[in-house]
Amino acid sequence: MPTQRFLHLPDIKREKIKRAAIREFSRFSFSDVSINQIIKEADISRGSFYTYFEDKEDLLAYLLHDFQESCKLWFNKNMELCEGNIYQVFWNSILVLIHYGREQQDFIFYKNIFLDAKLMTETSIIGFKEFFNKSREERELIRDCFDKLDRNICPVSNVDELSDLLELLLFLVAKSMAMYFMESADIDEILHGIEFQFKIVEEGVRLKTQRKTG
């Protein structure tokens, strides 16, 4: 995340750096993003950049921070609105991302991120690797989710089982978004296929619990 020096910059200068970075990440995959191009468009020196951020991974983490925090807030709110139905919460997240994604100002930026497979699976920037490694923050999120969970709908026995389930559901969300951004099928086809896979996961959890109790 950015240094205090960056956070204390005038709003106009911070926004200029942010917009230059978003434009560059919108044009290229993460591995091809050029810090030189960013500092050129932002009109700052290379030395200044490294007093603000450690590297481009740190910069991207900053760009995605607000999105990640809003997702967590949305998730917590919808766990309550959906009365603990975890499957409905994740399904709703797909509908929201697909139906409102193109209306977002930085649609191309997010599209590039979702389509970068290495970035999605092998780094902590997006949060998947961090989630799977069970960071302290993610463990707290999982415990809170477990407390709100309707276990009549999702009969997992403990936090570890819920964590495994969340990994599967996150992958289905990521898969649906990748298919959407790639335009590999129309929206109805994507939703139909993902909905079927959700039902497979839900039924699998139910059968596993029945075997354990039977």
Topology at a glance:
Layout: H1 4-7, H2 11-27, H3 35-42, H4 46-52, H5 56-81, H6 86-101, H7 107-114, H8 117-122, H9 128-132, H10 136-148, H11 159-182, H12 187-213
Descriptive overview:
The structure is a single chain. By secondary structure, the protein is an all-alpha fold. Helix content is 75%, strand content 0%. It is built from twelve helices and no strands. The longest helix has 27 residues, at 187-213. It starts with a helix and ends with a helix. The mean pLDDT is 87.
Q: Short summary of the structure?
A:
With 214 residues, the chain is mainly alpha-helical. Helices cover 75% and strands 0% of the residues.
List keywords for this structure.
214 residues; mainly alpha
